[in-house]
Amino acid sequence: MRHYPAFLNLRGRRCLVVGAGEVGTRKIETLLSCGPAEVLVVDTAPPSARMKALLDTPAVVYNQRPFEENDLEGRTLVFVCTNNAQLNATIGTMCETRGQLCNIADAPTQSGFIVPATFDRGSLVVALSTGGASPAVARRIRMELEAALGPSCGAFVELMGRIRPLVLELGMPTAANTEIFRKLAHGPLMAAIGEGDAEQVRDILTQELPAALHPRIGEVLDGIV
């Protein structure tokens, strides 16, 4: 099965996690990093120590009770992480009937969406999936890429994110903007950031950026190198 890759904006959204074991807790931690308005957690067992640490987060609501169908009301995403396969399948069917996206742990073919192996370097987020065929392979490739893309990659993306709107504000032709971004992205800038060579970074920006932006180079480099 081929899935459609997408990054979702969950800020202000309401999500549901059924089952707060190790897998469910990991899902909750990842969800909270995306700024949802609420994550309702339903589990018949009391919260684990790791789960208790998340209860101080205002967005987390923990209900120690069995799942009820009305828990699905208004939920953008549903994660089902219990060890009861029949319950998991039942909730998945409910979500499918209601047109809600549901992820069932360890059951990709029954899920409305799957969660890729991910890592981030600041604003750069890398997501990998084998379509559920082999999560272990996805994890291995993720680890290799994670080792290859060091912390400087995140700083590089941050810098490019600061430069881009300043260049666009100049109102130059699209082709000129594209050429500037291409040279910065494919040139020695990232390596210079990785080496912590502030002088070289400044020289590269002076060479590649329009003269109108030279007075702002110090501003865009603040905290980068």
Can you walk me through this structure?
It is a single chain. The chain is α/β, with parallel strands linked by helices and 225 residues long. The protein has three domains: 1-115, 3-Layer(aba) Sandwich (Rossmann fold), CATH 3.40.50; 116-149, Double Stranded RNA Binding Domain (2-Layer Sandwich), CATH 3.30.160; 151-221, no CATH class. The chain is built from nine helices and seven strands, in the order E-H-E-H-E-E-H-E-E-E-H-H-H-H-H-H. It has helices at residues 22-32, 49-52, 85-98, 135-148, 151-169, 174-186, 189-194, 198-208, 217-221, and strands spanning 14-18, 38-43, 60-64, 77-80, 101-104, 117-121, 124-128. The strands form two sheets. A five-stranded parallel beta sheet has the order 3-2-1-4-5, with helices on both faces. Strands 6-7 form a two-stranded antiparallel sheet. Strand 4, helix 3 and strand 5 (101-104) form a beta-alpha-beta unit. Helix 5 (151-169) runs antiparallel to helix 6 (174-186). The chain is elongated, with a radius of gyration of 22 Å. The mean pLDDT is 96.
